[in-house]
TrEMBL record:
GO terms for biological process: monosaccharide metabolic process. Residues 56-273 form the NAD-dependent epimerase/dehydratase domain. It comes from Fraxinus pennsylvanica. GO terms for cellular component: cytosol. Pfam families: Epimerase. Transmembrane segments: none annotated. GO terms for molecular function: UDP-glucose 4-epimerase activity. This is NAD-dependent epimerase/dehydratase domain-containing protein. InterPro entries: Epimerase_deHydtase (IPR001509), NAD(P)-bd_dom_sf (IPR036291).
């Protein structure tokens, strides 16, 4: 049986580590990182401006983006309910988060347990509760969104986490929000969801991140590099390593989600959200090393077409140029990312991997295939 319950505060685990150089409000970087600014300012601080309180439902919210978003919303005074299957704890104290902040958050967050693919339950439970705003963080298919809209005919705003992966591959970059999309992409469900929201006349806002990184990241983005740096291994990068891509910090994304809430300028709009600058694959490897205090890595380039990796994925990024313009979000919303890349990677390392926590164990199988052939060719 699904139920709406207040999650009671639990005493923080003694396993939570404290750091001398980082906290939840942003990374205080290790001494090895060189700063551009003379005076350091905390990054990603959880400071928000007051607005009228809303009854907000977050679809998802216990893994990555929603963890940071829900905290911002609670701090702003909103009543926040997480809709999840209940397989993961609704609250967990984050590294560097004070006992007081964690206790305050835990006492206020609500939980609606259920499967979003159980459409009848979604409709009955949401219509019974009633919500002003829905943040859909984990929606992948339009069919999963229809029952939510049916249950909440008076919904004020539907805020959707889409993806920059919907854009059609092109030689002309960066991608703008008006650019052609790919109806055959693996993110076509997100495209169909955006179309559904538009066709239903919903007051929606859709954000399209590129690659998201930061503490708790369950996709092997920065973690892939950190594993290799920690092991002192060469880093295999496909082709020339000069492919240009873009990363955005999860705390900057969470703040963008906050800035579109109740914002008339965000009504029925789509925004690219990511970091300010672009980076090459080789540059990303070097930035990860600098952020985590490792020596500059040895980089091995290879031609992926010369290998058969089976179902294994040898590199965490698509082997192409892939980046967007974030000018619309900056000009329309007044949003701007706070983290530059090295500072953001340091925040991720110091609050996560550097504490010995990560989502996936190191797997160097494809690396060894690549490096083995490289050694043969060299000999």
């Amino acid at each position: 049986m699904a139920s709406l319950v207040v999650v009671q505060h639990k005493q923080p685990s003694s396993a939570v580590l404290q750091s001398s150089f980082s906290d939840f409000n942003g990374a205080r970087l290790a001494a090895s990182v060189q700063y551009k600014r003379k005076i350091w300012q905390p990054k990603g601080a959880l400071c928000v401006t007051a607005s009228s309180a809303k009854k907000i439902l977050i679809m998802g919210g216990t893994r990555f983006i929603g963890v940071f978003l829900s905290r911002l919303l609670v701090k702003e005074g909103h009543q926040v309910t997480l809709f999840t299957r209940g397989k993961a704890p609704i609250t967990q104290q984050l590294p560097g988060e004070s006992d007081t902040d964690f206790s305050d958050f835990s006492s206020k967050i609500l939980h609606l347990k259920g499967d979003r693919k159980d459409f009848e339950f979604v409709k009955s439970s949401l219509s019974a509760e009633g919500f002003d705003v829905v943040y859909d963080i984990n929606g992948r298919e339009a069919v999963e969104v229809e029952p939510i809209l049916d249950a909440l005919p008076n919904l004020e705003q539907y805020i959707y986490c889409s993806s920059a992966g919907v854009y059609l591959k092109t030689d002309y970059l960066p991608h703008f929000e008006v650019d052609a999309v790919d109806p055959k992409s693996r993110h076509k469900g997100k495209l169909e969801t955006e179309s559904l929201l538009e066709s239903r006349g919903v007051n929606y806002t859709s954000l399209r991140p590129v690659y998201i990184y930061g503490p708790l990241n369950y996709n092997p983005v920065e973690e892939w590099f950190f594993h290799r740096l920690k092991a002192g291994r060469p880093i295999p990068i496909p082709s020339s390593g000069m492919q240009v891509t873009q990363l955005g910090h999860v705390k900057d994304l969470a703040k963008a989600f906050i800035q579109v809430l109740g914002n008339e300028k965000a009504s029925k709009q789509i925004f690219n959200i990511s970091g300010e600058k672009y980076v090459t694959f080789d540059g990303l490897a070097k930035a990860c090393a600098k952020a985590a205090g490792f020596p500059e890595p040895e980089i091995i380039h290879y031609n992926a077409k010369e290998f058969d990796f089976g179902k294994k994925k040898p590199f965490p990024f698509r082997d192409q140029h892939f980046f967007t313009s974030i000018e619309k979000a900056k000009s329309v919303l007044g949003w701007k990312p706070e983290f530059d890349l090295v500072e953001g990677l340091a925040d991720s390392y110091n609050l996560d991997f550097g504490r010995g926590t990560f989502r996936k164990e190191a797997d160097f199988e494809t690396d060894d295939i690549i490096l083995g052939k490289s050694l043969v060719l060299q000999s």
